[in-house]
Amino acid sequence: MGLFWEQNVFSVGERSYGGEEVSHDGHINIQDLTIKIEENASQIRIRFVKNKYHLKILDYLLKEIPDYPTPVEFHISVTHVTEENALQEILNSEGFKAREYKDDTFSWWSLKINEETIKEAEQRYLEETFPDRTQEQREKQETFLNKFTTSPAFDIQKSRYGNFRFTFPLNELMAAYKNQMCGGKDPVLRAYKTTFYRQEIMYVVLIHSPEDNEKFKKFPEIESSLLFDYNNDTIIWKAQAICDNIRYQLLLDQDNKIAETKDVKWNQYYVWDHVGLAFHFSGVLHFPKEKLKQSITCCEIDTINLSGSYSSSLEEAEKKCLV
After folding, report:
1. Which domain covers residue 126, as residue numbers?
2. Cys-Cys crosslink for 98: which of 105, 162, 230, 265, Cβ 3.0 to 4.6 Å?
3. pTM, whole model, 2 decimals?
4. In the chain, how many domains are there?
5. Residue 34 domain-assigned?
6. Is position 291 within any domain?
């Protein structure tokens, strides 16, 4: 079940990159979130200051959609995407400065999921679905998960937040944060917010110093849940909605222990979920400039541009990376 609070209220505010977002304290799974949005739909609309629009997300959540793989477990690295001016600030200051959000300051990171990560997740899904498969049945299985990983969370060639992507193994980022912001003590991870927009659901994981335990104590610590695990410097994301545009139906052949797909008659648009990591600190999280440069790759801007600034073409961005 999802996680609810005694004061079960959605709040409306500015998202970190501009525009409005609706949020709820803690992490709520999609099934429970649907119920709660239905129950509070009229109040959520009233609380929108700038755009009292129809809650489009309910149209997606209440659809009857084809079967698809869920949940799917991904073991991830992390990425911070930004635009050109911020890129220069990061390089000049040799690190990542926290941004203001909800009367506090955070550095925001997201998950990076490549083809190899998807293949590994597919194998875990199959082993959990058919734990007693024979070797012959394993050999007959064709790849299928990449037909469903169509949401923006899986598109590493594009971004909504800028042309420049810094990518770090999670253990390196956590080690730097532990040493610089936590006095050498292990950081604390908490289920911070469930936020949603018109089609997108983001689960925000708060990462903070143990010194701030009292400040953030109302948010439950993440150890093992229906949505996340964290151990050995690894975040395991149990994705619920991996395709924003469902083109296939998942068929599980229990007799032959094989996962298959078939085309759907019409594409079905649905919600998609992803994870945001909010590192709490003030000042700058430092890395050597050479390390920063080695971690940069360039990406195209997605159809939706939330960077708040002019964006370059991929070719222009790559030239700027070389400077």
Report:
1. 66-322
2. 105
3. 0.88
4. 1
5. no
6. yes
